[in-house]
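[step 3/7] inverse_fold.run input=structure_tokens len=245
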């Protein structure tokens, strides 16, 4: 249930933000024709062809795909390579700008997928973050820990501080809290699930790779507040890739 909730939240972020409005830019087709797909991907079928000399209006962009409208009111998706030689009303070639370092510095939303080790067990994680300011971000975290005798589902929230966001290899620090559900293996005698709260601190680095992608490496130290006499203090490291929008 916790994993589904995080996926729904992340899906809302992506669906609401990956598509960027272009302000309805009108251009003229210079190639013999361009093909309109029913969706933003090569797997979607071609349903209409626009010929040279006709005008189309660029509506919005999703990664390398553009939603367009023809003069006859047909709306579909065109791959960026087919728009590379379209013309502005003044006859100049339309400039299609790729995500740049400036876009990276001005990013608001970020999503990362990573894997590593949590207290000796394998862990996979999904993180969605929103930049509150140039240096501070709020992140939602979900992790699945796959141990030999038990598995853990972890959900949490954290604050990320990036003191030098303009650096291409930029350090960051995190402070977070959350809850985890421990599920013992079914082979154990009388297994019982347990719910615990935790807090953590972390350190890591981000490095911009290209376009909208970056690499993220991090290390965290946890305190798990148990019902026993002593709290647990597991350690975690992860490495993964992220994209921003």
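[step 3/7] decode complete -> sequence:
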């Amino acid at each position: 249930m916790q994993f589904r909730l995080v996926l729904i939240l992340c899906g809302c972020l992506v669906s609401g933000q990956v598509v960027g409005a272009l302000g309805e830019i009108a251009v003229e087709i210079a190639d013999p024709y361009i093909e309109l797909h029913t969706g933003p991907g090569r797997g979607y079928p071609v349903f209409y062809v626009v010929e040279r000399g006709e005008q189309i209006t660029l509506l919005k962009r999703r990664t390398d795909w553009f939603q367009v409208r023809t003069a006859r009111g047909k709306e579909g998706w065109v791959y960026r390579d087919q728009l590379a030689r379209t013309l502005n009303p003044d006859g100049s070639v339309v400039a299609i700008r790729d995500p740049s370092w400036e876009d990276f510095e001005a990013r608001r939303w970020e999503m990362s997928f990573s894997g590593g080790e949590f207290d000796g067990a394998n862990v996979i994680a999904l993180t969605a973050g929103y930049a509150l300011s140039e240096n501070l971000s709020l992140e939602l975290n979900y992790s699945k820990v796959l141990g030999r005798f038990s598995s853990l589902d972890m959900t949490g929230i954290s604050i990320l501080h990036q003191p030098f966001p303009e650096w291409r290899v930029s350090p960051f620090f995190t402070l977070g809290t959350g809850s985890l559900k421990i599920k013992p293996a079914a082979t154990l005698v009388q297994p019982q699930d347990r719910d615990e709260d935790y807090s953590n601190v972390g350190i890591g680095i981000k490095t911009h790779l290209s376009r909208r992608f970056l690499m993220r490496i991090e290390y965290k130290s946890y305190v798990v507040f148990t019902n026993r006499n002593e709290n647990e203090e597991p350690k975690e490291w992860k490495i993964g890739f992220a994209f921003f929008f």
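[step 4/7] annotate
The chain has two domains: 25-97, 104-244.
The chain has a mean pLDDT of 83.
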